[in-house]
Amino acid sequence: MTAELFIQQLINAISLGSLYALLALGLAIVYGVLKVLNFAHGDLVAVTGYIMWFFWMKYEIPFAFAVIAGILGATGISILTELIAFRPLRKASYAVKLISSLAVSIIIQNLIRMFIDPRPRGLRIPAVFDKVITVGSFHIGALSIITLLISLTAMGILLYFLLRTRWGLALRAAAVDFEVTRLVGVPANRTISLAFAISGLLAGIGGALWVIRTGGIAPAMGLNPIIKAFVSNVIGGLGSLTGAVVGGLIFGFFDIFFKAFLPGGARPFVDAFALTAVVIILFFKPQGIMFKKEEKLK
Amino acid sequence: MLNVKKITAGYGAADVLHDVQMNVEKGEIVALLGANGAGKSTLLKIITGLLQPRQGSVWFEDQQISGERPEDLLRKGIACVPERRRIFAGLTVLENLQMGAYIERSKDVIEEKLTAVYERFPVLKERSRQQGETLSGGEQQQLAIARALMSQPRLLLLDEPSIGLAPNLVHSVMDLLCDLRDDGLTMLLVEQNIHDALEIADRAYVIASGSIEIEGSAEELREKGLELEQTYLGEIS
Amino acid sequence: MISGWSRRRLAEALSSWLSVIILLALLVVAEIIFKNKSYTIILTNFLIYTSMVVSYQMFMGNSGIVSFGQVAFFAVGAYTAALLSIPSEIKEVALPTLTPFLQQLQIGALGAIFVGTLLSGLVALVIGIVITRMEPDAMGIATFALLVIVFKVIHNWKAVTRGGLGLYDIPAVMTPAYAMIGLAVIVGVSLLFKASPIGLKMQGAREDALAAQSLGNNLRPVTLVCYVLSAMVMGGGGGMWVHSIRAFGPGSFFFHDVWNMISMMVIGGQATVTGGIVGSGVVTVVSEIMRFPEKGMVIGSIEIPAIFGAVQLAVALLLLATLIIKPSGILGSKEIDFGIFNWIKSLNKRIRK
How far is the alpha carbon of C77 from chain A, nearest alpha carbon, in Å? Predict the structure, then answer.
C-alpha cells in the first residue's frame, strides 16, 4: 500500500470513526443518566432520514433545510419517547427498561412502515458531497471532510456544554449519582429530558451524515447505526463519554482498514470479526478499554 | 422545626418503620441512634422524599413536606449529607461545591458562599481543582458537608458522618458540627456511633426494629450508656 | 442451602406439566377433528414458537441475564436439521459447492432434528465456557454479539447456507401432533430444571446479589449447564421449525424473531415456564387478528387499504403496555396448574368415604 493510499484511508477511517463516535455519544448520554441502552436510538437515524426525504425529495425544499428539519425531528421524537416509554418505567428493573426500549424501536419502525412507506427509498445526494479534493497527490472525498468537520464541531460544542455550563454540570453529576443530584435540587425529569434531547440531537446529526453517506432510507435502517454505536460504546467502556468517542474511532479504523486488507472472500465477515473482537475484549476487560479496574465515570 | 408524625413505611411487602414520631427544635443537634437495619436510613429517605410513607406525615417549619419531591428539599432549607459521603466522583472539588449551590442562579452569591466555605474548610480550597474521588476519606467528608452547606440550609441531615473514619477525624467532624450549631444551624444526626454522637447532641432518639424505643436528653442517654449499647444497638463494630 | 430434590417442587412441576399437556392436547385434538388448514398452520407455528419462548425463558428466567443471543442456537439447529433433511438431489442443485459427503447425507427428520440439537449444545458449550466467565452485564452484551456474528456468518457462508437466499424443500413432516410432543418435552425439561437444585441455586443467586457473591465460582458451571441446556432446546425448536416451514432464510433469525420471542415471554410472564405458552398464545391471536388490516380488507362496500406494520405495531404496543401496567406478565409468578393432584386427592377422599 502506497503512502498516499494509506493516508487517504486514514482520513476515511477518522471520518467514519467520528461518525460512529457521534452515534455512540448519543447512546452514551442516555446510558449515563438512565443506565440502560436505548435501542430506539438507532431508529432516530431512520426518523432523520425520512424527514430529510420528505422535505428534500417530496417537496423539494433546499437540502440544508431538510437536514435541519431532520435533526429537529429526531430531537423531538427522542424527547417524546422519553415521555411515553421511559418516564413511566423510571423505577423499573434494568431488563424491563431494556426491553421497553426495544418495544419503542419496533413501534417507530412500524409507524414509518405504516404511514410513509414499507419499501426502501433512495435519496438524491447533492453533488457537493461527491466532490473529490486533490491536494498534491492526495485525493480526499468531500464527504469525508464534511463528516469529520461536522462531527468534530458537534463534539466540541457538546464538550463545552458539559464542562462549562450549569446544566452540563448537572448532567455529569446525574450520571455519577442520580439520587444525590436530586438532593441538591436538580429536577430529575428535566435532567432526563435534557439527556434525551441531546441524544436526539446527536442522533439527528449523525443520522443526516449517515443518510448522506448511504444515499438511502428504509424502515429498519436503524439496525446498523445502533450496532455501530453499541459496539463503540462497549469497546470504549459503557458509561464513559470519552470511551464512546475512542471506541467509535477504533471501530471506524477497524471497519476501513480491515476491509482494505482482508482477502476478498473474508470481507463480508468484517462485522463478525469485529464482534468476536468485542467479545474477547469484554472477556478480559469487562469495563471496556477506557476503564481500569474500579474506575468510575468520566 | 422538623416534626415526624407517626410514620409507617417500607419497601415491598413488609414495613420497615412503625409509627415513628420525633421532633427536632431549632438550634439543636438531635441524634438518631440505632444499629444496622434499625430503620435510620429509611427514615432519612422519608424525610428527604426519596421514599413515600405509607402512613403519617413529615412537617418542616409548619409546612407538610412528606410527599414532596427530593428536588424541592433544598429550596425549603433542608440539606442532606448522605451516607458514605457520596461526593461526585469525576467532578472536581470546585464542581462538587458548585453542584451544592445548584439552585442558586446568581454567580455573585455563589462566589460569596464559596469564599465562606473555603474559609471553614481550607483544605478544600487547596484541592479545589482536584477530582473528588482523589481526596482522602476525611477530606471527602468535609467536602460532603461543605457541599451541603453551599445552599445555606436551616436544617442539616447527616447520615452516619463518622463511618469509615479514623477516631481523630471523627473528632474533627464532631467539633465541626458543634461549630455549625453555634452558628445557628439545626442538625439531625443519624449515627451508629453513640459515644461521639451523644457528646455533641442535645437530645437523642434510639430506634430499633423500626420503632423509637427511647427518647430523651443526651445527658439522660449518656447515663444509660452501656445498657443502651447492648440492648438496642447490638455490638458496635 | 439446597442440597437435593424437593418432593414438593417436583410434584408442582409434574402437576404443571400435566396441565400443560392437557391444554395442548385439547388444541391438537381440535385440529384433528376440524382439519381447518389455516388453523393447522397457525397451531403448528404457535407450538413451535412456544418451544422457542420456553427455551429462551429457561435461561433468562433462571439466570436473570437478558440474553439476546439464544436465538443464534435456534439458527444453528435449524440449518443443521435442514441440511441433513433436504433430499440429496435438491442439495446438489441448490448447494453445488457443499462437500459431497454432506450433499449425499440425508437422514430422516427426527435424526436431523436430533443432530441439530446436539450441535447447538456443542456450540453452546464452547461459547458458554468463555461467556460464563464474564460478569453478568458483559455476558448479556456478549450474547448479543454472538447473535450478530451468527447472523453474519449465515448470511455470508454461501456455500453452506445459500446466504440470503435461504434453504428450501425441507420435507414437511411437522404436524401439530409432533410439534406438541416436541413442546411437551421442552416444557418438561424446563419445568424440571426450574425445580431442580441447580435451578434453585441459580434463582437464589438471581434474587440476591449477596448470595450470588458467596456462591461465586460455584455459579459458573451451573450457569453453563443452563446455557447449554437452553441452547439445546432452542436448537431442537429450530429443527422442528424448518420441517414445518419448508423454506427459510437468515432474515428469520434476527431481530424480528428475537423480538417476537421476547414479547411473548414478557407478556406471558418471564418468571414462569408456562408463561411462554400464555404469552405465545396471546401474541399469536393478536397477530392473526391484525393480519387482516395488514393485508387490507373489504367490509361490505368499504375497502380498507393495507396497513403495513399493523401486526408488529400491535404486539409492540401490547408489550409496552404490559411493561408499564403489569411488568410481571399475565401469569405473574404462578405456573399454569389445574391442580390435578389436588383433584386426585379429593377424588380419593370421596371414594374412601
Answer: 20
| pLDDT at residue A294, rounded to an integer | 37
Residue A209 lies in a domain: yes
Record: contact A99-C323, CB cut-off 8 A: yes
Chain C contact for A89 (CB, 8 A cutoff): yes
Task: Tell me, yes or no, whether C288 lies in a domain.
Answer: no
Encode pLDDT of C31-67 as tens digits. Answer: 777 777 778 888 888 888 888 888 888 888 777 777 7
**Spatial separation of the C-alpha atoms in residues C307 and C296, rounded to whole Å:** 6
Partners of C304 in beta bridges: C297
Within 8 A of A184 by CB-CB distance, chain B residues are 74, 99-100, 102-103, 147, 151
- Local confidence band at C212 (pLDDT 50, 70, 90 cut-offs): low
Provide the residue range defining the domain that includes A174. Answer: 3-219
Q: How many CA atoms lie within 13 A of B11 on its CB side?
A: 10
Q: Please check whether residue C308 lies inside any domain of the structure.
A: no
Contacts with B48 from chain A: Cβ below 8 Å: 183
pLDDT digit string (tens) for B3-32?
A: 888 888 888 778 888 888 888 888 889 999
pLDDT of residue A154: 94
Residue A118 in any domain: the answer is yes
Q: Quote the domain boundaries for residue C184.
A: 7-253
Residue type, A96: V
Convert the pLDDT of each residue in C168-210 to its tens digit: 777 777 777 777 888 888 888 888 888 887 777 777 777 666 6
How would you classify residue B90: left for phi > 0, otherwise alpha for psi between -120 and 50, otherwise beta?
left
In a domain, C74, yes or no: yes
Residue by residue, DSSP assigns A2-54 as -HHHHHHHHHHHHHHHHHHHHHHHHHHHHHHHH-S--TTHHHHHHHHHHHHHI
Using the 8-state DSSP alphabet, how is residue A67 labeled?
A: H
How many distinct structural domains can be found in chain A? 1
The long-range contacts involving B139-142, CB below 8 angstroms and separated by at least 24 positions, are: B140/B85, B140/B87, B141/B85, B141/B165, B141/B169, B141/B173, B142/B176
The mean per-residue pLDDT over the stretch B62-87 comes to: 86
The answer to whether the CB of C215 falls within 8 A of the CB of C205 is: yes
| Residue A267 belongs to a domain | no
- The answer to whether residue C345 sits within a structural domain is no
Structural domain tally of chain C? Answer: 1
SS (H, E, C) chain C: CCCCCCHHHHHHHHHHHHHHHHHHHHHHHHHHHHCCHHHHHHHHHHHHHHHHHHHHHHHHHHHCCCCCCCHHHHHHHHHHHHHHHCCHHHHHHHCCCCCHHHHHCCCCHHHHHHHHHHHHHHHHHHHHHHHCCCCHHHHHHHHHHHHHHHHHHHHHCHHHHCHHHCECCCCCCCCHHHHHHHHHHHHHHHHHHHHCHHHHHHHHHHHCHHHHHHHHHHHHHHHHHHHHHHHHHHHHHHHHHHHHHCCECHHHHCHHHHHHHHHHHHHHCCCCCCHHHHHHHHHHHHHHHHHHHHHCEEECCEEECCCCCHHHHHHHHHHHHHHHHCCCCCCCCCCCCCCHHHHHHHHHHHHHC
Cross-chain residue pair B98–A181, CB shorter than 8 Å: no
Answer yes or no: is A281 within a domain: no
| ipTM, two decimals | 0.84
CB atoms A179 and B50 under 8 Å: yes
Instruction: Give yes or no for a contact between B161 and B128, defined as CB atoms under 8 angstroms apart.
Output: no
